[in-house]
Amino acid sequence: VFCISPWNFPLAIFCGQIAAALVAGNTVLAKPASQTVLTATKFVELLYDAGVPQDVMQLIPGSTDVAGEKVVSDNRVDAVMLTGSNATAKAIYAKLAARDGAIIPLIAETGGMNAMIVDSTALTEQVVQDMVDSAFQSAGQRCSALRVVFIQDEVADKTITMLQGAMQELVVGDPALLQTDVGPVIDDRAKGFLDKHLEYLSSINAKLVYQVPNLSKHKKGTFFMPRAYEIEGINLLKEEVFGPVLHIIRYKNKDLDKVINDIN
User: Fold this and answer.
1) Most buried one in 33, 59, 119, 186, CB count within 10 A?
2) Catalytic residue among 3, 15, 69, 143
3) What's the distance, Cα to Cα, between the start and end of the chain in Å?
4) What is the side-by-side strand order in the sheet with 245-251?
């Protein structure tokens, strides 16, 4: 089994894929994200120390383009597990389809657009706490992070006002410090994508609800200040935005079915 794991959960997903494959009786080739090879290496060393034979479990560092290309094409691979992007999953599936014989199993968890629906019965304090935690913890770099919140018109102004107040309390800085709420994003490439998204939001006349101030002490690290924007509809978001950006959409109670259809 060829296991391909992401950088945003460099231990949990890496460990989970490998353990699932091993416990089902397979040998494993594991490719961590190129940004998190040291974490993966240490975990594999611990597996060996615990008694897993080296010829049963092997680490393959490197980029998905290089390492993945060669391994996926090899007929000795009987299954692939991936947590990553839609584009990577499609590329692997195409590569597997090109192999002779039946297409082997591909278990892929890929990107999406996590949404929350807030109606007029919701407790505002709880909603705002959940929004802030989900959208901005881990600098929004979780597959499970909140990307879009639909707020019913009758409670939208109150909820957004409280959200602004909660975001004013966020501390951006070194994640090693206890007072820090939001750390940097993973690398320059991730920050560049988020900067481009801000340009796109400007082009569609998105309304800035709040941005955490950029303090000059953040001289080292790829910091991206948490932001919330109002937009007209989820259809304006063409792909997953992997960072601390929350998109807010107002809706009328009579349009709830349409909201659900739009999310789906």
Assistant:
1) 33
2) 143
3) 32
4) 115-118, 148-152, 245-251, 227-230, 207-211
Element (H, E) at 251: strand 245-251
Amino acid at 32: P
Name the catalytic one among 3, 45, 69, 109.
109
Facing residues of 2 across strands?
Answer: 29, 80
The runs of H, that is alpha helices, within the chain are 12-23, 37-49, 69-72, 86-97, 124-136, 153-168, 188-203, 256-263
pLDDT digits (tens, 9 = 90+) for 76-120: 999 999 999 888 899 999 999 999 988 899 999 998 889 999 999
Looking up tokens 């998109």 gives 247
Strand pairing class (227-230; 245-251): parallel
pTM: 0.90
Whether residue 3 lies in the annotated active site: no
C-alpha to C-alpha distance for 118 and 132, rounded to whole angstroms? 14
- Which amino acid, 67? A
